[in-house]
């Protein structure tokens, strides 16, 4: 088993030390040993070591809370779920503890660098119902984005193309000639000098869709570290927020039939928030 674990895990994982400390366990909870015979078709469990995460600046603004839903206004740089190098500094981990809701789960996601309206369910029993609504495109979403003002752009315009996210690639690729799987209505909200705030209405929810679509129009979103080109930005650099805001979200509630509408209290431009050295708090 020791040999197999070394072949499966990156070199940076201290397999020998973790085996010695009994940190690999099987389905029965028994520690896996270095010289245990290899067992196919089984699972080995372990907790990886976590880095010390600097607190993400800003507040998690609670817009709405009831028996089934918690709706928040997410600050930029805060992950929706624990992932990669961001575990403690995620909406789910923070709010489960601060709201006393151990089953709190998001029914959709926002990129870590995107701010705005995020919907979560209070208990596991509600998640599938609301998640299905998002998957069935039963939710109307509006985003606001700051980018260079191009008077030559004929707006509004519908952008359609095929987006593909390859494993290991930071950027999403546009696949020429493939059937469209991503669609966004792009309009002009208002002009701010040399820049403009664009109103984006997606009818699909592909990874990085809005960022790719604006970059494809020649007006990439201000503060985007990935489009049109990948920038070398430290993961804990909070100085330049992406100027993309999930502004409004509305749907017919699948449980009681009521009309739901949630609007962000944040504005575009999205300003960097002060780093205080203390974890962000609820408001």
What does this molecule look like?
The structure is a single chain. The chain has 283 residues and is of the alpha+beta class. It is globular. The protein folds into two domains: 49 residues, no CATH class; 203 residues, Pseudouridine synthase, CATH 3.30.2350.10. The protein is 15% helix and 25% strand. A hairpin with an 8-residue loop joins β3 and β4. The strands form two sheets. Strands 1, 2, 3, 4, 5, 6, 9, 10, 11 and 12 form a ten-stranded mixed beta sheet that branches. A two-stranded antiparallel sheet has the order 7-8. The protein contains five helices and twelve strands. The mean pLDDT is 92.
Which class do the helix and strand fractions yield?
alpha+beta
Q: Summarize the biggest pleated sheet.
A: 10 strands, mixed
Tell me the number of structural domains: 2
- Regarding CATH, which class of the largest domain? Alpha Beta
Which geometry do the CA atoms define? globular
CATH superfamily of the largest domain: Pseudouridine synthase
On the 0-100 scale, what is the average pLDDT? Answer: 92
Work out the number of β strands: 12
How many H/I helices?
5
Q: Strand-and-helix sequence, N→C?
A: HHEEHEEHEEEEEEHEE
The fraction of residues in strands falls at 25-35%
CATH topology of the largest domain: Pseudouridine synthase
Secondary-structure arrangement, i.e. CATH architecture of the largest domain: 2-Layer Sandwich
Helix content: 10-25%
Cα-based radius of gyration, to the nearest Å: 22 Å
Uncertain runs:
none
């Amino acid at each position: 088993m020791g040999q197999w674990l070394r072949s499966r895990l990156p070199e940076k994982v201290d397999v020998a030390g973790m085996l010695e400390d009994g940190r690999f366990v099987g389905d029965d909870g028994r520690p896996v040993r270095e010289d245990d015979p290899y067992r196919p078709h089984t699972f080995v469990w372990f907790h990886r070591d976590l880095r010390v995460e600097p607190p993400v600046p800003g507040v998690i603004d609670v817009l709405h809370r009831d028996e089934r839903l918690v709706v928040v206004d997410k600050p930029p740089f805060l992950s929706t779920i624990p992932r990669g190098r961001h575990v403690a500094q995620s909406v789910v981990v923070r709010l489960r503890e601060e709201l006393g809701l151990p089953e709190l789960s998001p029914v959709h996601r926002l990129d870590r660098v995107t701010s705005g309206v995020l919907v979560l369910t209070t208990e596991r029993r509600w998640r599938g119902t609301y998640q299905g609504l998002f998957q069935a495109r039963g939710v109307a979403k509006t985003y606001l984005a700051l980018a260079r003002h191009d008077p030559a752009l004929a707006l509004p315009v519908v952008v359609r193309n095929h987006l593909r996210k390859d494993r290991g690639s930071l950027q999403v690729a546009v696949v020429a000639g493939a059937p469209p799987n991503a669609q966004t209505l792009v309009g002009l909200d208002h002009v701010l000098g040399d820049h403009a705030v664009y109103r984006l209405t997606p009818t699909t929810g592909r990874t990085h869709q809005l960022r790719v679509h604006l970059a494809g129009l020649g007006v990439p979103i201000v503060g985007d570290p990935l489009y049109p080109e990948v920038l070398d930005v430290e993961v804990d650099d909070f100085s330049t927020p992406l100027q993309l805001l999930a502004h409004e979200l509305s749907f017919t509630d699948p449980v009681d039939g009521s009309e739901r509408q949630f609007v962000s209290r944040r504005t575009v431009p999205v300003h960097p928030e002060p780093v205080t050295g203390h974890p962000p708090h609820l408001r």
